[in-house]
Amino acid sequence: MTRTYSLFSRVSSVVLVAAAMISMGSSLALASGSHEGGHEKMKKDMHGKMHDQMHNKGGHGHGAAASIGEPGVASEVTRSIEITMLDNLFEPESISVKKGETIKFIVKNEGEFVHEFNIGTAAMHAHHQEEMMMMMEHGALEADKINHDMMKMDMGGGKTMEHNDPNSVLLEPSKSTEIIWKFSKETELEFACNVPGHYESGMMGKVKFK
Ligand SMILES: [Cu+2]
C-alpha cells in the first residue's frame, strides 16, 4: 500500500480557487461540461503528482506511516477523545497523548463545510493539501459535499482519490465517524484539515506527547 501526500500549500491560490468554485455554483458543471477531457486531465495531473512523489520526496508510504504511529485495534483503546470540526477550526485545539497509547477519536463535523481529520507531520499535511486542491479543481470535492463517484475513479495503477487511509477521514457536514490510532512513536505530529484554505485559516492542532 502506497500512501501519497502532496507537497506545497498555496495560500492565495486556495482562496481564489475556492471563490471561483463557489461563484460557478457547482463544480459538477465543470466536470460534466468537458467530461472526457476533464477526467483525462485529472488522471494526468494526479499521475504526475504521484510520480513526483515516488521519485523526489521519498519517506511516504510505509516509511511515513511507521513514523507517525499506526492504526490501532479496538481492544487496545485506553481513551477516547472527541474532536469537533467547525468552520474552520477543531475543538479541542490541541491534544496530549502518551507514547504507545491507543486512542479512539470520535470525530464530528458540526460545520457547514466538508472537513478532514488527518494525523500526520506538517510535511505530510502540506503534501496532502496539494492533492486536495486538485480534487477541488476537478470537482471531486466541493465546499460542502464530496463527489464519491469521482473519488472512486481509478487514477491509474488502481489508485483513487478516496480517503481510505487509516490516519485520516473526510467528512461532510453533520457526519461523524471514529478513528483508532496508536501513537507508537514520539514525533512531531499535528492533526489537521487539508481541505483547501482550512489549514491556513487555523484548522490544525498539535499532538503533544506528555
Ligand atoms: Cu476543514
What descriptive keywords fit this protein?
210 residues; alpha+beta; five-stranded mixed beta sheet; 24% strand; binds copper (II) ion
How would you concisely characterize the structure shown here?
The chain has helices spanning 11-23, 27-33, 35-57, 62-67, 122-137, 148-152, and strands spanning 70-71, 79-86, 89-91, 95-97, 102-109, 115-120, 168-171, 176-182, 189-192, 204-209.
Amino-to-carboxy terminus distance: 31 Å
Beta percentage is: 15-25%
**How many runs of DSSP E, i.e. beta strands?**
10
Number of helical stretches of at least 4 residues: 6
Give an overview of the whole structure.
This protein is an alpha+beta fold and 210 residues long. It has helices spanning 11-23, 27-33, 35-57, 62-67, 122-137, 148-152, and strands spanning 70-71, 79-86, 89-91, 95-97, 102-109, 115-120, 168-171, 176-182, 189-192, 204-209. Helix content is 33%, strand content 24%. The strands form two sheets. It has a five-stranded mixed sheet with strand order 1-8-5-2-3. Strands 4-10-9-6-7 form a five-stranded mixed sheet, with helices on one face. It is globular. Residues 1-36 and 53-66 have low confidence and may be disordered. The structure holds copper (II) ion. The site of copper (II) ion has 7 residues, from β6.
Which secondary structure elements does this structure contain, and how are they paired or packed?
Blueprint: H1 11-23, H2 27-33, H3 35-57, H4 62-67, E1 70-71, E2 79-86, E3 89-91, E4 95-97, E5 102-109, E6 115-120, H5 122-137, H6 148-152, E7 168-171, E8 176-182, E9 189-192, E10 204-209
Parallel strand pairs: 2-5, 4-10
Antiparallel strand pairs: 1-8, 2-3, 5-8, 6-7, 6-9, 9-10
The structure holds copper (II) ion.
